[in-house]
């Protein structure tokens, strides 16, 4: 078959794309392995041609911030193409009532086995993520992607070494999509992939974008040691997402991370109010975050801290507590975003039941948009908040 795989435009104007869709490049690799002809496009930087509609199957991955474009793509392909239409991605759980009958398949959750069945082949993946082909980077021009900011060296890209997160944060849809039990790729495979990205595509930075890279110390340790053994730390730099719990963010971990070329650690702090952290089910203390912000720079790495504004229980006092924490700890980069009630999350259920969510269409879900209120803070109150240390309010992406 001729197959077109698409990542829709975002709901707001953006004429660049930070990284290729790992999902689409993986599905593309599977399809190519079965002998199909595959093309991949990212519509923030690519356009569709008349020829693109002359395919047998179009696959569209979509998160909640891409709904507007995805709807239009479904409409256009239904009107101008005979292609079967497949929808997947994190927003898939919310599509069925709206889109039922307009598409041929809605893929919810992990899609590899479902994808093979759609292609007419027996599913061959049995839960071991090492059996899934690596993304086929030849399907895109890697030099066209900007990297996820702040970029430490260009060109920059992302990869994932695991699936699933043990956390139960009320606002996060990762466990809904990947599950709460992490599954880890073989460290050798991950480092082989890093070496390939450097050698074949000239990548100078890799952001290992797993939600909690340090949740499994033996696994992370082997990745660092293999990076060092192959001399990749002398050719490239790295970024990681980490939990700040003291047991996970040990000094041994930080020492080895720095040696392996990690220059930036992303911390999803979300709030410096202990009440808010408990409401979010973060299972961490403000003091552990304080320790992390102090310790990481001592090992020569920079702290990138992200905060969420407007989750249940937020007050002017909790915002002031967060501001005071930022002033005291001085993270290198501070990002703040208004809380987004993603479909299926505990947070979305709460604000819906308590009439604390604006009745807006998913197409109006934007970075920087106020979509919820709290018991104390109205929509206007939250909209009037100017950010921490005058940081622009925009969810870290």
Report what the structure shows.
This protein has 397 residues and is of the alpha/beta class. It has 2 domains: 2-131, Rossmann fold, CATH 3.40.50; 147-390, Aldolase class I (TIM Barrel, Alpha-Beta Barrel). 32% of the residues lie in helices and 16% in strands. It contains 13 helices and 13 strands. The strands form 3 sheets. It has a 6-stranded parallel beta sheet. Strands 2-1-3-4-5 form a 5-stranded parallel beta sheet, with helices on both faces. Strand 10, helix 8 and strand 11 form a beta-alpha-beta unit. Helix 7 (217-229) packs parallel to helix 8 (251-259). The longest helix has 15 residues, at 187-201. The protein is globular. The relative contact order is 0.10.
Question: Keyphrases for this structure?
Answer:
globular; single chain; 6-stranded parallel beta sheet; 2 domains; 13 helices; Rossmann fold; alpha/beta; 32% helix; 13 strands; TIM Barrel
List the helices and strands and how they pair.
Layout: E1 2-7, H1 22-33, E2 37-42, E3 57-61, H2 67-80, E4 84-88, H3 96-99, E5 105-106, H4 112-118, E6 156-159, E7 162-163, H5 174-178, E8 183-184, H6 187-201, E9 205-208, H7 217-229, E10 237-242, H8 251-259, E11 262-270, H9 274-280, H10 286-298, E12 302-309, H11 316-329, E13 333-338, H12 346-353, H13 379-384
Parallel strand pairs: 1-2, 1-3, 3-4, 4-5, 6-9, 9-10, 10-11, 11-12, 12-13
Antiparallel strand pairs: 7-8
Helix pairs in contact: 6-7, 7-8
């Amino acid at each position: 078959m001729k197959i077109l795989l698409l990542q829709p435009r975002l709901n707001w104007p953006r004429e660049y794309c930070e990284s290729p869709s790992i999902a689409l490049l993986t599905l593309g690799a599977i399809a190519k392995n079965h002998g199909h002809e595959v093309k991949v496009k990212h519509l923030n930087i690519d356009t569709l041609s008349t020829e693109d509609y002359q395919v047998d199957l179009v696959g569209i991955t979509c998160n909640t911030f891409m709904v507007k474009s995805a709807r239009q793509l479904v409409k256009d392909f239904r009107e101008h193409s005979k292609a079967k239409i497949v929808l997947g991605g994190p927003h898939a759980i919310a599509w069925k009532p709206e889109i039922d009958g307009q598409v041929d398949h809605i893929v919810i959750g992990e899609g590899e086995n479902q994808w093979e069945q759609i292609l007419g082949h027996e599913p061959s993946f049995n839960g071991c993520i090492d059996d899934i082909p690596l993304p086929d980077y030849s399907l895109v021009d890697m030099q066209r992607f900007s990297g996820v900011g702040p970029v430490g060296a260009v060109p920059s890209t992302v990869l994932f070494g695991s699936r699933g997160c043990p956390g139960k944060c009320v606002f996060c849809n990762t466990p809904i999509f990947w599950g709460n039990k992490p599954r880890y790729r073989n460290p050798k495979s991950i480092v082989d992939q890093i070496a390939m990205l450097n050698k074949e595509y000239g990548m100078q930075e890799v952001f290992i974008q797993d939600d909690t890279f340090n949740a499994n110390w033996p696994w992370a340790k082997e990745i660092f040691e293999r990076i060092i053994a192959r001399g990749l730390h002398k050719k490239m730099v790295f970024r990681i997402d980490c939990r700040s719990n003291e047991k996970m963010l040990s000094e041994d971990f930080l020492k080895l991370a720095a040696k392996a070329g990690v220059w930036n650690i992303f911390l999803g702090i979300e709030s410096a109010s202990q009440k808010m952290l408990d409401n979010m089910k973060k299972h961490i203390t403000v003091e552990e975050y304080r320790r992390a912000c102090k310790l990481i720079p001592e090992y020569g790495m920079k702290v990138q801290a992200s905060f969420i504004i407007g989750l249940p229980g937020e007050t002017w006092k909790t915002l002031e507590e967060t501001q005071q924490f930022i002033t005291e700890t001085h993270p290198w980069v501070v990002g703040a975003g208004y809380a987004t009630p993603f479909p299926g999350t505990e947070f979305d259920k709460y604000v819906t039941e308590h009439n604390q969510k604006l009745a807006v269409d998913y197409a109006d879900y934007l970075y920087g948009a106020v979509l919820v209120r709290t018991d104390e803070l109205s929509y206007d109150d939250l909209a009037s908040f100017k950010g921490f240390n005058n940081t622009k309010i925009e969810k870290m992406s």
